[in-house]
Amino acid sequence: MKVLLISPSIAPDLKTPKGLMIPQLALHILEGLTPLEYEVKTVEEETERINLDEDCELVGISCMTANAPRAYHLAKEFKKRGKKVILGGVHPTLLPDEALGYADSVVVGEAEGVWEKVLEDFRKGTLQRTYHHPKPSLDRYIPLKFRKLTKKRGFNVIPIMTTRGCPYSCEFCCVSDIFGKEIRHYPISNVVRDIEESRSKIFIFLDDNIIGKPQYAKELFKAITSYKIKWVGQASISFVHDAELMKLAAESGCVALFFGLESVAEAQLKTMRKSIKEIKGIEDAIKRVKGLGIHFHASMVFGFDGDTKKIFSETLDFLERNKVGTASFNVLTPYPGTRIYEQLKKEGRLLTTDWKYYDHSTVVFKPKNMSPYELQAGEIMVKREFTKISSLIRRLPGNLSHPFLYLALNFGSRKNVKTDIKRLPELVSEIPGFI
Question: Has this prediction a pTM greater than 0.90?
Answer without folding.
Answer: yes
